[in-house]
Amino acid sequence: MRLLIADDHELLRDTLRLFLAREEAIEVEFESDLPSALRAIETRGPFDLVLLDYSMPGMNGLEGLKSTLDAGNDVKVAIISGVASPDVADRVLALGASGFLPKALPAKTLANAVRFMAAGEIYVPVQFLRRAKDETTSLPASSQLLPREVEVLRGLCAGKTNKEIARDMNVQEPTVKLYVKTLFRKIGVRNRTQAALYAKEFGFS
């Protein structure tokens, strides 16, 4: 996997360089501004994924994201930021990006997210998908999920279909579909991939 990270913070670049060097089959290149990143895409591409810092030189808000997505070759692009809000994350996805990564993500989670996005999945941490009025509240604890919902969540994490989960739980498939719908609302995710990520990050797998 070839990864291009464009960020003007030297400390972050050095940290990511050290960490990702330990990951198997990930080759990483770095740039410090958008023009350099666009030149790298044109002259040294293709890359499996491009990570752009939201506030680095040349970005001009989300204009830089648009320019990178328009660079051709169906390049997959995600935004990484330490300051952007959930509203910005929504706009990033609406423009067709592969995801949004807060800089506060644990290194291992970031590496997993990179692999997901390079494989064609969409990634945004669940806390950026919540629509509760108080977005600073903590994520739902296991005690806030029904035992059956936890079973469904574990099944999703294992990659099982609704039919397979229904067989494991000895219930009808429409019942599982209802559990899935309720579960997604409770934990603030939009699809099965995000639910599986939630399960792994918060110890349900």
Automatic annotation (TrEMBL):
GO MF assignments: DNA binding
Highest taxon of source: Bacteria
Response regulatory domain segment(s): 2-118
Ranges for domain HTH luxR-type: 138-203
Pfam families xrefs: GerE, Response_reg
PROSITE patterns: HTH_LUXR_2, RESPONSE_REGULATORY
CDD domains linked: LuxR_C_like (cd06170), REC_NarL-like (cd17535)
Protein's UniProt keywords contain Nucleotide-binding: no
Organism: Rhodovulum steppense
Signal peptide: none
Modified residues (4-aspartylphosphate): D53
Record bears the keyword Isomerase: no
Protein name: LuxR family two component transcriptional regulator
A biological-process GO annotation: regulation of DNA-templated transcription
Keywords for this protein: DNA-binding, Phosphoprotein
